[in-house]
Write a structure and sequence with these properties.
about 200 residues; mainly alpha; 8 helices; globular
């Protein structure tokens, strides 16, 4: 286990290849839940948990179930790859249900504040994208690397949505031109934030 490699994977997915600001994945909750910092941070923590566990479990399903079965029955490791989408979505949906039950029992205010966006984590393309990237990227073929990549993806999502929420809280007290109020200024800020994150691209070089 190379700590330097793990740190590089983590730093890359948090800053350089941030799912939201570089890959434009998970835009729906990014824009919908970033009105308040506490809500945004709660959503970020929920997504981090789901994406980390889903990344680990889907790696196991791919490398310990689908690939060996394809090799055994069809003499082709990738013969059952088409089942990955069904398996991944089932895993993600199960993790979201677990988070939803936990928040409903122990954090009712946060559960109510997140509202419809909580079950929508199931269809958050950032989580499905992370699971697919883990299989495709050569540096995440080891389980520990995949776990770090998935966790970093969740931290990157939390970072992006929390920064966005902080900016939007300040915008409410700013003199925004009428034509830019509402969704207009939100999308404008998201674009500027995404542009700012491109400055981290040189870190991996």
């Amino acid at each position: 286990m190379d700590i330097g490699v793990l740190f590089g994977i983590f730093l890359s997915v948090v800053l350089v290849n941030n799912f939201v600001l570089a890959g434009f994945l998970g835009i729906c909750p990014f824009l919908g839940v970033s009105r308040k910092i506490d809500m945004a941070f709660g959503m970020g923590c929920a997504v981090t948990f789901v994406i980390t566990i889903s990344g680990i479990v889907t790696w196991m399903i791919m490398h310990w179930v689908l690939l060996p079965l394809g090799e055994h029955f069809f003499h082709n490791k990738e013969a059952l790859i088409f089942l990955q989408y069904v398996a991944f979505i089932m895993v993600i949906a199960s993790m979201v249900q677990l988070v939803e039950m936990y928040l409903k029992k122990f954090f009712p205010p946060l559960y109510s504040a997140l509202g419809v966006f909580l079950p929508l984590i199931t269809t958050n393309c950032a989580i499905l994208g992370a699971c697919l990237y883990i299989y495709m990227k050569p540096e995440t073929q080891e389980l520990i690397n995949a776990a770090v990549y998935a966790f970093g993806g969740g931290i990157g999502f939390t970072l992006a949505i929390s920064i966005m929420a902080g900016i939007r809280e300040h915008i409410r007290f700013s003199d925004v031109p009428k034509s830019f109020q509402g969704a207009g200024v939100t999308l404008l800020v998201a674009g500027i934030l995404a542009l700012a994150f491109t400055g981290f691209a040189g870190i991996g070089k």
